[in-house]
């Protein structure tokens, strides 16, 4: 499994989609479980979920063009 880096021409906001297609089986994150095992999530696992969450937030935010919205995700160790 060799990793294919995205070309410089791929905008930042499309790079996860690039990886989903070109590096779908490559690990995105390796997460320790409570029992000490490690769970590996690939780009194929994560990218569709990111799109699902983005669509959820898009539906929650009004389309009022006079208002800008900032959404931030903050995680700390132990959460």
Can you describe what's shown?
There is one protein chain. By secondary structure, the chain is an alpha+beta fold. It is 33% helix and 14% strand. It has two helices and two strands. The chain has helices at residues 15-22, 43-60, and strands spanning 27-32, 38-42. Strands 1-2 form a two-stranded antiparallel ribbon. Strand 1 (27-32) and strand 2 form a beta hairpin. The longest helix is centred in the middle third of the chain and has 18 residues, at 43-60. It is flat and about 45 Å long. The model has no long low-confidence stretch (mean pLDDT 86).
Q: Uncertain spans, ≥5 residues at pLDDT below 50?
A: none
Query: Given the helix and strand composition, which structural class is it?
Result: alpha+beta
Main sheet characteristics: 2 strands, antiparallel
Strand order of the largest sheet: 1-2
Number of helices: 2
Radius of gyration: 16 Å
The secondary-structure element order is: HEEH
> How far is the first residue's CA from the last residue's CA?
31 Å
Strand content: 5-15%
Annotation, overall tally of beta strands: 2
- Mean pLDDT rating: 86
Shape: flat
The percent range for helix content is 25-40%
Keywords:
alpha+beta, 79 residues, 33% helix
């Amino acid at each position: 499994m060799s990793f294919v880096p995205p070309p410089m021409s791929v905008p930042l906001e499309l790079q996860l989609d690039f990886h989903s297609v070109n590096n779908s089986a490559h690990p995105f994150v390796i997460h320790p479980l409570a029992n000490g095992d490690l769970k590996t999530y690939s780009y194929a696992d994560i990218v569709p979920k990111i799109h699902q969450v983005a669509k959820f937030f898009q539906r929650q935010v009004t389309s009022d063009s006079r208002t800008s919205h900032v959404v931030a995700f903050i995680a700390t160790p132990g959460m």
